[in-house]
Structure to design on (375 residues):
């Protein structure tokens, strides 16, 4: 690992409308819902939206080759997060290592489907590295709609409080492979 | 039959009690060589709740141990192999460096951190963190508590016991505000996580 995260600026710019259409037509999985802060999470993935999962997997492969060198197989889950004004996501890790199965999540992608985001709008993503520092994402992620950022599942991330009236929306995806050895 | 993975979660750590007798714990403490070094990254900050609110704030002393206690390292490694075979199944090579003694004087802290050095240029990763709980003034209370972020689990370490857990877990060590606590610590390395 060389970098904490890899950004593909505007990677999904041409595909984002199609992606949104695919998701709007798909039935969210059980477990989808709204939390106390009004953050709405809808689960897809696992083959529900195969085209979109495949499109994201291409960038998982590229990011993985650049930075991690993990043994990865597929995009295993996909969800959307709609964060209203006043909403935020606390620090979290996407690690699912302790389940008794033969795969582990290894990489995690967040797609920016918003118009420009900055300090005034909130909804920014911060990484919390193992040495305890809060690190902002490369700014280019917010400047280009359709950008994708890839992090590993050992990295904690959080999303700052949204300050605008328009909800901030992210599409997230996990990539898994054989269990970490 | 369908296996519900969300109800089948394996433990995040393995603890073994009674690995070292009281006499062996004393023997380990006698084998300290050289003077201890105090490691800290605090600038006279007073942390009121380091377990929850801070990352990676620490003050503790480390002391090397005489090579005469090499057999303790072998014993620790046997338990690591057992834990790895029963729960984790990682590729491991052995200890990174000989176990060393960590001393927490009253008020010393070790805030949230991970031992996995993900930016390391070494061709290996730390796979396991191992702690042996060696010393406290009162045998009826735990030597230290280890707080894990994962599921907010807290583990109490009794004198003579050891705990083994994956190095990528975020954890903090809660020692004591009134008495000295000592732990033996080492890392187990293996090929990079793939």
């Amino acid at each position: 690992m060389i970098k904490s995260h890899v950004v593909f600026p505007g990677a999904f710019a041409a595909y984002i409308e199609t992606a949104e259409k695919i998701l709007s037509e798909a039935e969210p999985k059980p477990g989808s819902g709204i939390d106390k802060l009004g953050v709405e999470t809808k689960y897809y993935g696992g083959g529900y939206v195969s085209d979109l999962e495949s499109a994201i997997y291409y960038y998982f492969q590229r990011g993985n080759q650049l930075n991690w060198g993990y043994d990865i197989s597929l995009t295993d889950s996909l969800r959307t997060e709609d964060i209203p004004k006043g909403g935020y996501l606390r620090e979290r890790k996407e690690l699912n290592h302790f389940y008794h199965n033969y795969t582990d999540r290894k990489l995690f992608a967040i797609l920016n489907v918003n118009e420009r985001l900055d300090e005034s709008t909130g909804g920014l993503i911060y990484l919390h590295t193992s040495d305890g520092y809060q690190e902002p994402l490369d700014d280019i992620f917010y400047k280009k709609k359709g950008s994708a950022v890839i992090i590993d599942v050992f990295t904690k991330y959080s999303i700052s409080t949204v300050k605008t009236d328009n909800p901030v929306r992210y599409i997230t995806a996990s990539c898994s492979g054989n269990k970490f050895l | 039959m369908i296996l519900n993975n969300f109800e089948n979660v394996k433990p995040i750590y393995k603890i073994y009690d009674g690995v070292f007798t009281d006499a062996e714990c004393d023997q380990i403490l006698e084998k300290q060589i050289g003077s201890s070094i105090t490691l800290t990254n605090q600038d006279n900050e007073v942390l009121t709740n380091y377990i929850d609110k801070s990352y990676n704030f620490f003050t503790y002393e480390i002391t090397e141990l005489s090579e005469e206690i090499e057999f303790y390292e072998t014993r620790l490694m046997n338990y690591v192999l057992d834990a790895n075979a029963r729960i984790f199944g990682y590729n491991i090579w052995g200890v990174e460096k000989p176990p060393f003694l960590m001393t927490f004087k009253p008020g010393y802290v070790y805030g949230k951190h991970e031992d996995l050095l993900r930016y390391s240029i070494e061709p290996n990763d730390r796979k396991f963190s191992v702690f042996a709980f060696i010393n406290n003034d009162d045998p009826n209370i735990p030597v230290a508590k280890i707080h894990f972020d994962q599921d907010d689990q807290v583990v109490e370490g009794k004198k003579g016991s050891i705990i083994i857990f994956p190095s990528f877990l975020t954890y903090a060590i809660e020692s004591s505000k009134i008495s000295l606590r000592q732990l033996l610590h080492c890392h187990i390395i293996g090929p990079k996580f793939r």
User: Anything to note?
Assistant: The radius of gyration of chain B is 17 Å. Chain B touches chain A at residues 3, 5-6, 8-12, 54-56, 89-91, 111-114, 116-119, 149-150, 166, 168, 170, 191-194 (CB under 8 Å). The helical segments of chain B are 22-30, 50-53, 70-88. Chain B has one domain: 11-191.
